């Protein structure tokens, strides 16, 4: 695994000399074990239009929760990739998300969703992203409620594979 400056890592468990995984100790002790870590998110990836400080972790939480809700509604998609930017040429400013989804049930190499996929016919499904972002970032929610930010715009994209 490669790390970059700003990666926030989480120690998930410790590997002992016996190659067994052991729980992380609750007290500080001198360790002779190797920490196994995972990258949680990258610090510094932050959108801040008016003090709402939306982090990458807010977005990942938003996407995970939204996909879970979609699956409960029989919209079986997974996130392939996304990017987000602030649209500053309008007032109030808003975030624009470019979101690439894949069919969670497809076994083909190209799992891109097709034009008849239920999510493309359901505007309310896309507005779930806005609801979940408000849940993930309470300051964003406050800015939305006071009119300092306009609602999230989501644009579904497909890669050309």
Question: How big a fraction of the residues is strand?
Answer: 25-35%
Unreliable stretches:
none
Multimerization state: single chain
How many DSSP-defined strands?
A: 8
Q: What is the H/E order?
A: EEEEEHEEHHE
Main β sheet profile: 3 strands, antiparallel
- Helicity range: 10-25%
Description:
By secondary structure, the protein is an alpha+beta fold. It folds into 2 domains: 7-42, no CATH class; 46-157. Helices cover 24% and strands 31% of the residues. The chain has 3 helices and 8 strands. The chain has helices at 56-72, 123-136, 138-145; strands at residues 7-15, 21-22, 34-42, 46-47, 54-55, 77-87, 94-103, 153-157. The protein has a 3-stranded antiparallel beta sheet with strand order 2-1-3, with no helix packed on it. A hairpin with a 6-residue loop joins β4 (46-47) and β5 (54-55). The longest helix is centred in the middle third of the chain and has 17 residues, at 56-72. It is globular, with a radius of gyration of 20 Å. The relative contact order is 0.16. The model has no long low-confidence stretch (mean pLDDT 81).
